[in-house]
Amino acid sequence: MIPKRFRPAAIAALTVAVASGGFFAYSANAVSGPAAADKATTETFARLADDVLSQRTQALVDGQTVRHGHGQGGKKKARVSDGLKKDEAAAIQSLRERKTRLAQLGEVYSGADTKVTVDGATVTGGKATVQVTEQTTLTYKKVHGDEPSNTDFKTRYELTLTSKKGGDWELQTIKSQENGPVAVNEPVVAKAAVVKDDGNQYPDGTPASTTYPATAKPKTLTGGAYNYTAMAQYAEKYWSNYNPAYRKFSGNGGDCTNFISQALNAGGWKPVPGTSTDYRNWWYDGSRQSDSWVGANEWAWFTLSNQRAANLANVYQLDVGDILQADFNRDGSKDHSMMVTYRSKAGMPYLTYHSTNTYRKSLASILASYPSATYFAYRT
Asked: Could you tell me which of 172, 198, 147 has the C-alpha nearest to residue 14?
């Protein structure tokens, strides 16, 4: 079997420059070996990344200015280089178009708060490599009245910069380090790598319609064989912080299916012991796990072959504790797994997942980012 894990989506590179004054610690004549950036330089890198990412978020928000932690207090903002101003304008325009698509589906953001922290920054000669984490909270406008209060996400980027004459730093690239769907404020959706079909037949399931609205299929959340409320509570407790009782796979193809397996287990799904490579088995023992515990395709094959869940006809029929999977590039291999942790009275499911770590992102937002993907909806 081909191991089917989530494949990373890269975003377009941007180039920006920021005026430095005299407080930069490094220049093109700095030492040749890698050295940690000092506090002032690290703060500048954070401010530069914060400004770019906050501008992206601003393109999605209705009216109010996005709050963010840098680029304020009289400090100069990052400047986009002349050569890439056109590309950046197109990226912002794509986010504004996404905003319009979301509004057509009844979703509006009334405010946002973006924070950027530097996880590491090294300088070698006149070049810098910087790892940052963005955490953004978007506030849902009460269009229907029972939307959640907010959606949150964390996403990691790697920045590369070069030192220019006079001490200025120029940002050459900013690339997502996540294996999950693009964050709602990422302007470019890259195609996932195509996986060659191995010729074997598997219980892949039936794709779901994305037509809105759909006939509701509510279910009892507690008191039955499974506790769907407990599943949702688990996912929302650990969406940002990993449960230390489990290993994480964020650096090994993505943690999304490992995360939903944990939540399903918390709600009463029982393990099926056996060979780890046989998709009909599903288990985790602390040091090892079945392929179906961590693999998006293997999880689907286990679920359908063991009748743990059935496919729903429409993605908008998903309820709390149900699972949505996506094949982003329509190559027949599922790329990502998400759990519904809230459903509004208007019939909108909200999804929580790892890779990229996200809390209560609306189904509308997923569809607006990946309108041509193939989706599979599971009633657990």
From this structure: 172
Residue 49 to residues 43, 93, 134, 258, Cα–Cα distance (Å): 10, 19, 9, 30
d(CA 134, CA 97): 22
* 124 SS3 class: strand
Q: In the Cβ-directed half-sphere of 58, how many Cα atoms lie within 13 Å?
A: 12
CB 52 within 8 A of CB 157: no
Any idea what DSSP says for residue 259? H
- Check if the beta carbon of residue 231 is closer than 8 Å to that of residue 267: yes
What is the token pair recorded at 58?
């601003």
Residue 117 corresponds to which tokens in the numbers above? 């922290």
Local structure of 349: helix, strand or coil: strand
Of 127, 136, 126, the C-alpha closest to 156 is 136
Does 99 score more than 90 pLDDT?
A: yes
Q: Output the six-digit token pair for 205.
A: 């399931």
Contact yes or no for 172/150 (Cβ under 8 A): no
Strand partners, 170: 17, 162
Amino acid at 257: T
Interatomic CA distance for residues 313 and 166, integer angstroms: 61
What is the per-residue pLDDT across 225-284, written as a single tens digit (0 to 9) for each? 999 999 999 999 999 999 999 999 987 668 999 999 999 999 999 999 999 999 999 999
Distances (CA, A) of 273 to 68, 70, 287, 290, 304: 48, 51, 14, 9, 17
Go through the chain and tell me how many residues it has: 380
Q: Please give the pLDDT value at position 336.
A: 95
- Please enumerate in sequence order all residues whose Cβ is within 8 A of that of 201, keeping only pairs 6 or more positions apart, or say none: none
Cα separation, 337 vs 324, whole angstroms? 6
CB atoms within 10 A of CB 278: 16
For 76-200, list the strands marked E by DSSP: 79-80, 109-124, 127-140, 150-163, 169-176
Q: How many CB atoms lie within 10 A of CB 2?
A: 12
The answer to whether 133 and 154 are in contact (CB under 8 A) is yes
Q: Taking the model in full, what pTM does it have?
A: 0.84
Amino acid at the residue 89: A
